[in-house]
Amino acid sequence: LAECDRLGDGRADYSHKHRRHGVNVQVITAPTGQVPWISPALPGRTHDLTAARTHRIIRIRERQGVPVLADRACQGAGSWVTTGRKRPPGGELTVTQRTVNRAPARARAPVERGMARLK
To answer: Are 31 and 107 in contact (CB under 8 A)?
Structure first.
């Protein structure tokens, strides 16, 4: 979520998750953290997976043969997208599941630094 001032109909730009107004911007980054593409802004209330589907990010990357490493918000996006596992409601992840989650988290660390620089 990229924060913004409330303009016009502020309800569309309000993200209940972040409890502030903003716009949803999808970014494609290289493993090094470089940013080759930034999407047009969508309303802040738009879910990340919906935004990725709107901009056809997953479909285009699959066609290009480029695997997608995404955060847990994109679970269920398809077999081409790798995400970590979410903790089940009212439960905990097993030691093995937590260990498996560390690999994507480590790979995403430079990407998150790129996002921080962008913001």
So the answer is: yes
Task: Summarize pLDDT for 60-98 with one digit per residue, the tens.
Answer: 999 999 888 888 888 888 888 988 888 999 999 999 999
| Rounded Cα gap, residues 16 and 2, in angstroms | 14
Q: Provide CB contacts within 8 A for 16, sequence distance 6+.
A: 45
Q: Residue for token digits 């999407």? A: 39
Burial 39-69 (b: 16+ CB within 10 A, else e): eebbbbbbebbebbeebebbeebbeeeeebb
- Contact at 8 Å (CB) between 53 and 60? no
Tokens 């030691």 correspond to 95
Q: How far apart are CA 113 and CA 119, in angstroms?
A: 10
The pTM of the full predicted model, rounded to 2 decimals, is 0.77
Domain coverage including residue 56: 2-118
What's the number of domains the chain is made of?
1
